Amino acid sequence: MHKHTLAILLGSTITFSSAVFADGHSDVKQLQTEGKKTIMDLATTLKKELTGAMKSGGPSEAIKVCNTKAAPLTDSVSEKHNWQVGRTSLKLRNPENQADSWEKAVLEKFQQQADEGADLAKLAYSEIITDASGQKVFRMMKAIPMGDKCLSCHGSEIKPGVAKQLDALYPEDNARGFSKGDLRGAFTLKKVL
Ligand code: HEC
């Protein structure tokens, strides 16, 4: 882990040591605001697509949509906002969404907070890190809770037909067995400063 600790996780009031600002980086508050906007856009875009597909063809149609459209839609939101945005989880469905070590540590902290009863809607974390090439990068994550609409594909009573379809597309699928209110994963963002 980086020198800044993972102590600050609740709510949107995220504090940083003043050393972070010393070399004239953009204002962290501004970055958090931009990051949140990007997350909102991705969440809305994916939800709209999912809801439309569920309405027109149920889970089997919606799985196809998630499978083929989640990645290009995520890329287009990244480009539009000029942020790198994605989703990740400790229990993955799509191996492309694998967390790196920084993300894994934040997810583990989120899970710990969730176990202690934290309000997942408020669970977010951001930090400026220095990457392997010495580049300063602003990173941010926001928890994704399980809702009712997610159960048909991520819950513990997935219909046999749906399970079969998921088995075929995601042989390593680990993203089942969640209950409403569980921590499903997180949005993850990056911006090179
Ligand atoms: C129709 C089935 C379906 C429904 C309903 C569904 N998902 Fe998914 N989910 C998928 C599929 C398929 C993937 C893998 C493709 C992708 O999005 O990368 C996925 C991937 C994800 C990921 C990315 C991490 C990973 O494991 O790969 C998250 C986070 C996620 N879903 C959360 C949710 C949430 C929250 C809801 C409810 C709002 C939801 N899903 C509803 C099928 C579904």
Could you characterize the architecture of this molecule?
The chain is of the alpha+beta class. It has one domain (24-192). It is 43% helix and 17% strand. It has four helices and four strands, in the order H-E-H-E-E-H-H-E. The protein is globular. The two termini are 19 Å apart. Bound molecules: heme C. The site of heme C has 24 residues, from helix 1, helix 3 and strand 4.
N to C succession of SSEs: HEHEEHHE
Q: Provide the gyration radius in Å.
A: 17 Å
Measure the end-to-end span: 19 Å
Main beta-sheet strand count, sense and barrel state:
4 strands, antiparallel
Quick take:
This protein is of the alpha+beta class and 193 residues long. It has helices spanning 28-81, 101-115, 151-154, 160-169; strands at 84-88, 124-130, 136-145, 183-192.
